[in-house]
Structures are given as structure tokens and as C-alpha cells.
Specification:
alpha/beta, 6-stranded parallel β-sheet, 28 helices
């Protein structure tokens, strides 16, 4: 079959050289090198040469899963996230699952436990199967993302037949974006699978410079003896100026060069495009002034959200600009919830064994106030940073204190429940596997009906409205028209008002799942109900890619003609852009910031603009070296 490989790109031919020897391999390539293209070529060629082979292709995100599935599809190909892949292997071995979970829970060094249980007995989970969900409820045998990987690592360490089973099921395991994989998975694939004498091949595709998530492997330097390393140095995406900047930022052995393919996106009339590179700075933090300057002087169009994106470090920094500050504060900035977590931690850390199942949160606080010695009372009282929020929100505090402690302590709050998973542009298809909670999903559907009707997309509107089941006569359509037009007139109505109107009119019915969510998350639910619905509409526009904003982390894997990067740490100590330019400070923070900046810069297909507020002279000196003196501009 080797003769069929002549049409393959050189790096893929080298991969098959490794496959022929039965060796694991790693394909490293920088941004825009076409790693996913290489991955697809490998899959197709394997099925040409071995039609009956079974391939598992695993990656970090659901969005990446969809991208691969859109490019290649075979009956014997399983594409999934890392967590889903490993859970699918271990989920049927409930006896081993339970034994491994109990061992982990009883290991104080690992740091996860069941509240009130110092030692978990061996028969604790006998009445419940272990299930994997988006949330964690260990008492009920429900594990989440982190626990799946811990348990899988424990199981593969101790039960060699799992390695036999995995190798029997998949002759090839291809790991896309390997740098985002947890170390536990790498050890399973490269160390624990060696317990089995059966044969299979593990292939890795990725870029250590794009390792921007916490608690991931980053690189495979500790496993060199297990793999053949193949480098892919071409860059098909970025113009020359951005490639040159990217090479300055890289800290590994790869130095990218423009692709020699004449049809590469960064080529024009047989030549690599030069592109535009701008470093803008000001003593005025007003981003609007900078965007106006880019529009007037360089014809940037921030209204064209498909081609131009503004990258901020966090969703919180975007929320104020995009108009949903209140909602993100509810999901991510509620000091009462942080206080609840402080109380939960105290009860766990100090082994308070009182039965709180019949007490309210307020009664738990009163009990602890009596229990704790005066000198230690600071441990159960709000911190200085929590107190102002509580003073400003006495009604919320009273609500929280009135809630059952058992209910309140189980409520899970995360901004991912509000804003995961957003599109990069309006034309992108919806992503599966979103973490949005049931309330946000319901509000999203209400706004979707409003949006479709307002745009005259009546057939699509009819397909998603619950009212469609009531339409039998012409008068039913007339009534629907009256109801939806009333709903479109949002004005200053609250989310609660719109929710009820959509329900009573039959346009979007409140179902059992939403009712259950309300019961389990009453504190969150009540807070969201008070927010004007027009603020949720701003969230909807952001989720649907209808704004020019996205986060620097979320943009990984995407590309746009024009990219505008805001260098603002946003009070996040994990990153420091000044230290990036000056190459100083904590090595881990420097490495993390450098990789994130690399990812941001290499999203640009034509023009890259950077904004830095109040840079020092030392920062400007470095910027002139990186960007060119003529491209460093005071605005």
C-alpha cells in the first residue's frame, strides 16, 4: 500500500513510517500549520490500508469534536472528548469503579471527600451505580470531569485487563490538541497500556505553544522514549509580519515558515502576504477611542463581526462592554455564594459532624456561631471583601439564610452555566455539549423565537415554538401572531415577566426540567428573575457571535481577518502582560502569558492590532523590536 502514500504530505508520510514500525508518534506544528488536515489525512489513509481497523480520535472540546466530524466520517471511527472516551471505557466496570473511587476518597493527599465522612466504607456505593455528569454529587455516586480522570488513572494502574480491552477496541488512538490533555490520560496511553501485550498505536497532534489551559500536560518532553517526533513548520494562515512575530514568541525548536502551497490562505499572486501589525498605546483606557482610530486611519470595521474580533482576557471584561454585567455578576461575582463555600469548607475541614439536614443556612450560621471559640470566629464570618456585597444586598442575604442548608450547599454556580458555549460568528453552527444551565437554555429558546419572528424567518419560528401544537385553524395562527408580537415588545420587562408571558401564551412552555431546576437552584433562579430581559438579549447576541467580542482563551482554534487584542490582566494574577515584554517575574506566569499571547496573535489572517494601556518605556522598547518602530503608535 506504500505506493498510495505518494500523494500524502511529507509529514504524514513520516507518520506512516512510524506506523509501519509499530511506533507511537507526535506531530508538532505551530498555529496555521494544518495539523487537523494532517490528522484527517492519517485517518483516511489508515482506512485505505486497514479497512477493518477501529480508530478513536479524542480531543479537548466538543467544538473540536464537531470540527473533526465535519471533515471525516467512517463507521469504525469514534470521535469524542477525552472525558467521554475514557468514561466509555471504564463505565461498565462498576465494581472496580467503586473500589477505585473509595480509595481516592480515603486518600487525604488527593483532597476530595464526602462531607462528614472521614473514612468511606467499602460498601458505601453498593446501592448506587457510579455515574458521570456535568456536576459533582459524591454522596449519590455522581462524579464530574476531574474525578473521571482520577478514577480512570487509578483503574488502569491496577487492572491490566482494561489495557487489553482498550487495545482490542481501538487499534489506533489519535489525540488531537494533545497539549490540552490531562497528564493522567497521557500516562494511561503511554505507560499503563504497556501492561498489555496486545498491539496498538497512539498518535498525538498539537502544539506546546498553544497550551493555554490549566492542569494539562503542555508537552511530552517526559515521554520522549515512547514516541517518534515529527515537526510541521509550515504556516498557511498568517501573513509574513505575524509569522515573524510568532517566531519571536515561540520558545520551542519550531520556527515557522510560510507555506509553499500557492493556494494557502496567506498567499496572494504566488507571494506571501505582508499583513499589518500595529502596537497601539495610550494613557487613556477608553477602548472606543482606539477602535475609532483603527477605523479612521486603517479602515477597520468592527461592525463586521464575522471578520473582525476584539479579544479580551475574560468574559467579565467583555460583560460590561457587551451589556450583561448584572447577569455575569450573579453567576460569577456573588459574595453570598462565596460565603456559603467558606462555611462548607469550615464544616469539612474541622469535621463538624452535626446533622444539618433540617436546618436553614441561617440556622447553620447560628449553630456555628455558638460552637466556635471567639478567637476562631473569623473563620466562619464573611471576609472583608464579602462584607460590602452583603451590605448592598440585604434581601439576597435574607433569602439565602432562609433556604434549606442541604439545598443551598448543593447549588452549583459557574459563569459557564451562563455563557458556555458561544459561537465565534453568526454563521457558525451551534455547538453540542454546552454547560449552560436549564434556565439559560430556556431563556435562550424564548429569545430565539423572538429573533426568528423579528427577522421574518417564520417557518423556522414555527418549528421551535411550543404553540405549533395548538395550530389547527387560521384563527390559531392569528392568535399566535398577537402573542409573539406582544412578546417582541420587551421594553423594560423583567426576565420573570417574559418567562411567564411566553409560558401563558404557549410560545415557550415551562417544562418539568425547568421546574426541577427552580426547586434545586431557588437562590440563583430568584436573582435572575429580577434582571431586565433586554440584558439577557445582550447575552444572547454574545452567545450567537453577533458581537465583535470574544475571550482570548475561547478564540483558540479560530481565525479572523482582523484581530484586535486588549492587553489587560483584568486583576487576574495568572497573567502579566508587562512581564511578558520584560521577560521577568514568575516563570509559570510568564510561560502562561506568552502562550496565550501567541495564540491571540496567530488568529489573524490579515491584520493584527494590539492595545496596551500606559506601557513603560521598557515595554515600548521591546514592542518596537517585536513590531517594528514604525508600527508602535501613541493614540
Amino acid at each position: 500500500m506504500a505506493k498510495d502514500r505518494v500523494a500524502l504530505e511529507p509529514e504524514v508520510q513520516k507518520i506512516f513510517g512510524a506506523i509501519d514500525k509499530g511506533e507511537n508518534f507526535l506531530l508538532s506544528g505551530g498555529a496555521g500549520s494544518g495539523k487537523t488536515y494532517s490528522l484527517v489525512q492519517v485517518i483516511r489513509q489508515i482506512f485505505i490500508e486497514q479497512p477493518s481497523a477501529n480508530i478513536a480520535c479524542i480531543t479537548y472540546t466538543n467544538a473540536a469534536v464537531k470540527e473533526i466530524e465535519d471533515r471525516v466520517s467512517y463507521a469504525n471511527l469514534q470521535v469524542s472528548t477525552i472525558h467521554d472516551f475514557i468514561w466509555d471505557i471504564i463505565k461498565h466496570f462498576q465494581k472496580e469503579l467503586k473500589k477505585s473511587l473509595i480509595k481516592i476518597l480515603n486518600d487525604n493527599a488527593i483532597g476530595i471527600s464526602i462531607s462528614g465522612l472521614k473514612n468511606v466504607p467499602e460498601d458505601y456505593f453498593d446501592d448506587n451505580p457510579i455515574n458521570y455528569k456535568e456536576y459533582l454529587r459524591l454522596q449519590e455516586g455522581i462524579i464530574s470531569h476531574d474525578e473521571v480522570l482520577l478514577i480512570a488513572h487509578e483503574m488502569f494502574s491496577n487492572y491490566s485487563r482494561l489495557s487489553d480491552i482498550l487495545k482490542d477496541r481501538f487499534q489506533f488512538v489519535l489525540v488531537d490538541e494533545y497539549q490540552d490533555t490531562d497528564k493522567a490520560i497521557i500516562e494511561i496511553l503511554l505507560v499503563h497500556l504497556k501492561q498489555s501485550n496486545k498491539k496498538n498505536i497512539i498518535g498525538f497532534f498539537g502544539d506546546t505553544m498553544q497550551s493555554i489551559y490549566d492542569n494539562t500536560i503542555g508537552d511530552l518532553s517526559d515521554y520522549k522514549e515512547h514516541i517518534i517526533h515529527i515537526k510541521k513548520v509550515q504556516n498557511r494562515r498568517n501573513p509574513k509580519k505575524i509569522i515573524d512575530l510568532a517566531n519571536i514568541l515561540r520558545t520551542d525548536e519550531i520556527e515557522q515558515e510560510p507555506s509553499k502551497d500557492l493556494d494557502a490562505p496567506n498567499m496572494e499572486n504566488g507571494k506571501i502576504q505582508e499583513g499589518q501589525l500595529l502596537f497601539l498605546y495610550s494613557n487613556n483606557p477608553n477602548i472606543t477611542n482606539i477602535k475609532t482610530y483603527l477605523h479612521e486611519q486603517y479602515d477597520w470595521n468592527f461592525e463586521n463581526v464575522k471578520h473582525t474580533k476584539e479579544l479580551n482576557l475574560t468574559h467579565n471584561l467583555i460583560a460590561e462592554k457587551a451589556g450583561f454585567q448584572t447577569l455575569i455578576n450573579i453567576y460569577d461575582g456573588d459574595a453570598i455564594v462565596k460565603y456559603r463555600d467558606r462555611i462548607k469548607a469550615y464544616i469539612k475541614d474541622y469535621n463538624v459532624n452535626e446533622d444539618f439536614s433540617e436546618k436553614t443556612f441561617g440556622e447553620v450560621l447560628d449553630y456555628l456561631e455558638e460552637l466556635v471559640l471567639d478567637k476562631d470566629k473569623f473563620r466562619i464570618r464573611p471576609t472583608a471583601s464579602m462584607k460590602p456585597f452583603m451590605e448592598e444586598h440585604p434581601r439576597q442575604l435574607a433569602r439565602a439564610k432562609a433556604l434549606s442548608y442541604e439545598v443551598f450547599r448543593k447549588m452549583y454556580f459557574s459563569k459557564d452555566q451562563l455563557i458556555d458555549d458561544k459561537k465565534q460568528s453568526v454563521n457558525e453552527e451551534s455547538k453540542k455539549g454546552s454547560k449552560r444551565d436549564r434556565l439559560i437554555q430556556h431563556l435562550f429558546r424564548i429569545q430565539q423565537t423572538i429573533d426568528l419572528y423579528s427577522k421574518g424567518r417564520f417557518n423556522e419560528f414555527l418549528k421551535i415554538t411550543d404553540y405549533r401544537f395548538k395550530i389547527n385553524y387560521v384563527k390559531d395562527k392569528e392568535e399566535l401572531k398577537t402573542h409573539i408580537e406582544a412578546l417582541v415588545q420587551v421594553g423594560d420587562k423583567s426576565i420573570e415577566t417574559i418567562l411567564k408571558e411566553a409560558h401563558t401564551s404557549g410560545i415557550c412552555i415551562i417544562d418539568d426540567r425547568l421546574e426541577e431546576f427552580k426547586l434545586k437552584n431557588k437562590y440563583l433562579y430568584d436573582r435572575v428573575m429580577e434582571v431586565p430581559f433586554k440584558e439577557f438579549q445582550k447575552v444572547y447576541n454574545y452567545l450567537e457571535g453577533k458581537t465583535p467580542f470574544t475571550t482570548q482563551h475561547k478564540t483558540k482554534g479560530a481565525e479572523f481577518d482582523n484581530v484586535f487584542v486588549i492587553l489587560d490582566n483584568g486583576r487576574w494574577n495568572n497573567y502579566n502582560f508587562e512581564n511578558l515584554f520584560l521577560e521577568k517575574g514568575s516563570p509559570s506566569v510568564l510561560d502562561r502569558t506568552q502562550k496565550l499571547f501567541y495564540v491571540c496573535c496567530t488568529r489573524a489572517k490579515k491584520r493584527l492590532g494590539i492595545f496596551y494601556y500606559k506601557p513603560s518605556e521598557d515595554v515600548l522598547t521591546v514592542a518596537k523590536n517585536w513590531f517594528g518602530k514604525e508600527n508602535v503608535i501613541s493614540v
